[in-house]
């Protein structure tokens, strides 16, 4: 009832007052309020009924308090455009907390103790332009929470988090590389492992922070005089665009002393392919290479060719690496007349 005499009040500043509790419905008599500043107080909780009645509120400052758990913000705050929760003791962002804040444009949550963010936490924020999650305890940045924002967000600030730069961050690296125009993300640095501490995350290439191979296993099956079946297993990776299966002969080389590299580009769902038109009783080097944003872009001519294609010199591509796996195989002896049996079976 403290504010019943001021129904037309537009701006209310209550910072630096050691306020530790807000009574239910404390602001219901202020329907025209645009600004509410409760910063630099001693609030540990602010249940949603404490903020009811503020249907025209545009700015809510709750920074520099002792908030630990955030309650769902009420539907009354649907006009809110700026929310400052910085420098509290919030440890996590749960799904549904911001679901009524449909007009929120700026969300400041920096300087908290946040170590986890639910995947759809920011999805309702269709007009969010700035999100500041810096100076928290996030070892893994919440990519699933960022994705729904990518069409409207302009500034995403994530610096000064103890980012663990490992294989689990490769998908994040891909996404950040594709959204480098976002103000703030280029300053994100690694904290772990020790050898990468202080390095800018986006300036690293995946092999620097992920030593696990993309292609885990490579097997050659159904070996015939003129064909072999190549199959492989790979690590789950959303940044993967597809595969390139490449091969060349190691024996029976022509006058130039080397065989042309041949192969085909396959989509990311492929896990096997049959190679035909091989020479009998010949050793071949066969490689499966993962294709993604981490490597040089392929030309349109290369990616549009169907069937067998010439891929150029085998060096340096046809070697084991974090993005490829190679093996040797020798075809069986056979008669030329048997070659027709291996043709035309969805192979290269």
UniProtKB/TrEMBL annotation:
This is Fibronectin type-III domain-containing protein. CDD domains: FN3. Pfam families: fn3, LRR_1, LRR_8. Residues 212-314 form the Fibronectin type-III domain. The keyword Transmembrane helix does not apply. It comes from Graphocephala atropunctata. It comes from the Eukaryota. SUPFAM superfamilies: Fibronectin type III (SSF49265), L domain-like (SSF52058). SMART domains: LRR_TYP, LRRCT. Keywords: Disulfide bond, Leucine-rich repeat, Repeat, Signal. GO terms for cellular component: cell periphery.
């Amino acid at each position: 009832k403290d504010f019943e005499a001021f129904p037309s009040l537009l701006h209310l500043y209550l910072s630096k007052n050691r306020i530790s509790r807000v009574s239910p419905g404390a602001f219901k008599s202020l329907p025209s309020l645009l600004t509410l500043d409760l910063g630099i107080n001693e609030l540990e909780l602010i249940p949603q009924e404490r903020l009811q009645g503020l249907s025209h509120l545009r700015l809510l400052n709750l920074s520099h308090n002792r908030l630990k758990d955030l309650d769902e913000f009420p539907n009354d705050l649907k006009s809110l455009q700026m929310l400052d929760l910085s420098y509290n003791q919030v440890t996590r962002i749960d799904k549904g907390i911001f679901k009524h804040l449909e007009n929120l444009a700026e969300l400041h949550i920096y300087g908290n103790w946040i170590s986890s963010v639910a995947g759809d936490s920011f999805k309702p924020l269709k007009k969010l332009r700035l999100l500041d999650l810096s100076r928290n305890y996030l070892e893994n940045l919440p990519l699933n929470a960022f994705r729904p924002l990518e069409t409207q967000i302009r500034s995403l600030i994530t610096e000064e988090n103890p980012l663990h730069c490992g294989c689990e961050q490769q998908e994040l690296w891909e996404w950040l590389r594709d959204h480098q125009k976002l103000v703030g993300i280029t300053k994100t640095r690694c904290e772990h492992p020790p050898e990468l501490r202080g390095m800018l995350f986006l300036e690293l290439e995946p092999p620097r922070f992920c030593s696990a191979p993309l292609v885990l296993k490579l097997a050659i099956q159904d070996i015939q005089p003129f064909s072999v079946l190549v199959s492989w297993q790979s690590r789950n990776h959303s940044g993967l665009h597809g595969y390139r299966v490449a091969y060349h002969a190691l024996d029976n080389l022509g006058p130039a002393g080397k065989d042309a590299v041949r192969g085909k580009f396959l989509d990311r769902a492929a896990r096997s392919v049959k190679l035909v038109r091989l020479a009998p009783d010949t050793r071949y080097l066969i490689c499966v290479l993962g294709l993604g944003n981490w490597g040089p872009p392929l030309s349109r001519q290369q990616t549009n060719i169907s069937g067998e294609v010439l891929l150029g010199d085998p060096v340096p591509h046809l070697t084991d690496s974090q993005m490829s796996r190679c093996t040797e195989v020798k075809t069986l002896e056979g008669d030329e007349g048997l070659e027709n049996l291996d043709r035309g079976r969805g192979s290269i």
